[in-house]
Write a structure and sequence with these properties.
Layout: E1 3-6, E2 9-12, E3 17-23, E4 32-38, E5 46-53, E6 58-60, E7 68-73, E8 78-83, E9 92-98, E10 102-103, E11 107-112
Parallel strand pairs: 2-11
Antiparallel strand pairs: 1-3, 3-8, 4-5, 4-9, 5-6, 7-8, 9-10, 9-11
Length: 113
């Protein structure tokens, strides 16, 4: 399965973006999907942002809890990440992934102060 993200861009602090991740095949049988990000600093590690399973249960990283929401539409084979109250430290490349299977190329999010 291939994953293609979109929706990134440049936004001012406090703004919002909605990221989408479209899968090349049905995701209805995929138990867990998630969003991760990698910041611009040299050597910055990838970090998990949010995951969702196929009954809708989510887990959100503490750094974004209360600001980011993950959701999925199995009929559209699409995973979403709604990002509100964005901060400069949220800047990075955001990618969707299926644990232990695959991940997309990502979409760049830049938050200006």
């Amino acid at each position: 399965v291939q994953l293609v993200e979109s929706g990134g861009g440049l936004v001012q602090a406090g703004g919002s973006l909605r990221l989408s991740c479209v899968a090349s095949e049905s995701i209805s049988s995929i138990r867990i999907m998630g969003w991760g990000r990698q910041g611009p600093s040299p050597g910055k590690q990838r970090e998990q942002v949010a995951i969702i399973n196929n009954n809708g249960t989510t887990r959100i990283a503490n750094a974004v809890k209360g600001r980011f929401t993950i959701s999925r539409d199995n009929e559209k084979n699409t995973l979403y990440l709604q990002m509100n109250s964005l901060r400069p430290e949220d800047t990075g490349n955001y990618f969707c992934y299926i644990p232990d299977k695959t991940w997309g190329q990502g979409t760049q999010v830049t938050v200006s102060s």
